[in-house]
Design goal:
Elements: E1 2-7, E2 13-19, E3 23-28, E4 32-37, E5 44-47, E6 50-56, E7 60-65, E8 69-75, E9 79-82, E10 86-92, E11 96-110, E12 114-127, E13 131-144, E14 148-151, E15 155-158, E16 174-176
Parallel strand pairs: 2-6, 2-8, 3-7, 3-9, 8-10, 9-11, 10-11, 11-12, 12-13, 13-14, 13-15, 14-16
Antiparallel strand pairs: 1-4, 4-7, 5-6
Length: 177
Amino acid sequence: MTTQTFPVGQAPRVVLADCRGDLAIEAWDERSVEVHSDHELPVIRQEGDALIIEYATHSLRLRVPADAEISAERVRGDATIQGVRAATLGAVDGDCVLQAIAGDARLHSVGGDLEARDIGALEIEDIGGEGVIDTVQSVTVGSIGGDERSHGDQRWQRRRGPHDQRGAQRSGQRHRR
């Protein structure tokens, strides 16, 4: 197990290009970013308030300040991000859980299921599996391969209209509880 800690300034950002395992990020009360892996840590560099991780060959666990902004181009496993200011993810090959994101969460694609709770605004292009949305102020979705379940009074907007990419009618598959 390897852990490394990096001090951050007033506008912390974590930028991750490629994670070949799972990615877990949670907020903590420190003004630093802690990076933990069960294997050797990837090369990490700091540029101003940004902590940049180019290529992680294994799963990573990070603890970041609550006002951190997270950006990841590719996560080849599951991604869990909670308690941060904002998150932008390119592709998550597995499942994705986003929780307590104070501002916006933007995702291009999730190969598995998406669970999003307590988020300012959620924008996602494609969900391969099921989408569970709870207490999100506004939701913009392209397509969902499985069922949509929402709890609360989210404002939904579909990018592609009533049909997903495969042309299947989506009505009847959205469940509100």
